[in-house]
Amino acid sequence: MRNHFHILKITITAFAVICFFASCDDNLKAIQKMEIASNEPVGEVDKMLLKHTDSGKLQLTLQGKTMLDFSNDQFPYTQFPDGIKVQVYEYKNDSTQITSITADSGTLYDLTNLVDLKGNVNIVTSDSITFKGSQLYWDQTAKWIFTNEPPFEILIKDSKTNQELGRTSASILDANEDFSIYQAREPNDTFIPKSKQ
Hints:
globular, six-stranded antiparallel beta barrel, alpha+beta
């Protein structure tokens, strides 16, 4: 009788262990599925055009061939893997001034309000300042742009005559959005004089 009880006890224990490991395996598979799901976008838009207005006036347009929404990520973001174009509108003295920004790809981080532009980044401001580079960060909250990805170039022209007023090439840049304040330097901290005052 004791042998039967001992065998029954071993059998129940073995069954419990098998169930426990099977349950762990199921949980592991569920976690792996969740990880895979969090790496996939929750939304995808083709040929997107977003227009932002304020008081009936157009403030910003954002275009992209493909937009991927990763708001399910722990650090939510929106990605434009096939190119991005942004136009910012300002209204001064009864005229509309447009700053145009293009890049091969762009990522907008929701929590920090930071935009990461990569590949053939090109900015043309309303007063004929042009930035060309391989990468640029844009802090929308601080209205500040910066990069440490060489090479980049800033070209300043007279907006009326289109005559070149100055050209700056460097590796590191800190600037406000309209380049009225900027600092360009090399990694060895050699500062490049500003062309615009």
